[in-house]
Amino acid sequence: SGDYTEPWADCISRITVTKPYELDGAHATIDFRLPVTLAFDRGIRWRRVQVVAGQRNADGTESLTPIFTGLLRRPDPGQGDPFRATLRLLLDNMTARLKTSEWEGYAIPLGGMTVNAAMDYVINSVGFTALDRVWHSNGLIVTLPLGRAEDPCEWPREGENKWDTLQRLANYAQCEVGCDDSGLLISVPKGYVSPTVAFEWEAVPTASGKAAIYELENSLDFGASRTGVILSGEDEWGQTLYSYVIDGIAELDPSSQGF
Length: 259
Known about the structure:
mainly beta, nine-stranded antiparallel beta sheet, 14 strands
C-alpha cells in the first residue's frame, strides 16, 4: 500500500516457490543481480511480498496469477563479481507472523466461543483481521467447552506459541490451517481435495496406483528458456518421481516473455 518503486525489477534472475504438502510450509526465494551503485536497505525485513507469475502476449495483453504471498524473512546479500552484487531474498508465508509470536501478559479464556471466533481472537492479536482469513464452516458449528472456573478451557498461557494455539483450535473442528497463494489464512477439513483436482497425489497414498507427493516447486529461471512446475514425489517403493509441467503457450509463442 502507499507509494512504492521497483528498482530491482530488471535485475531478477530467478524466483523459486516451494510448496510442501503441509499447508503452512510454503516458502520462496528471489535472486537478484544488482549494480553496485544500487542501494540496498535492510529495513525491508518483514515487508509483505507477492510473487505474480504469468505471461505477456504479443498483443500486449497479460495473464497473471499470484503464486506466493509472504513476508521477507531475511535478505542475504553477496558479492558475485567486482561490478555486480548478488542478493537473495528469503520469504516465508504469512503464517510466519504467528509462528514468531508468543502470548504475553493476559489473554482471555477461549472456552464458550465457536472455533472460528477463537481463531479470530488469535490472529487479531498479531494484527490480522477478518479480511486476512477464510475459515471453514465446520468452525462455526463447534463450540469450545467452558471448562471450570479454576481451570478454564483453552486459556492461552504466557510464552505459548500462537501458531500452536491456532493449530490446536482448528483440531476441534477437524480442520487444518495454512496459507493460500494470495496470502489469506485458511482452514480446510483434514484430507480436503479441491473439486478442480483431476488427479490426486497423496501425502500418504492409500492405493499402490498413487504416488506420494511431498513437494511442489514453481521455478521461474530468467536465464533459461523454459518456465514450468516441478512436482516431486515417491512411488510405493520409495523411489523419487518427478512430474514436469512446461508452459506450452510460452514455448509455442516466441514473442511471449515469462515474468
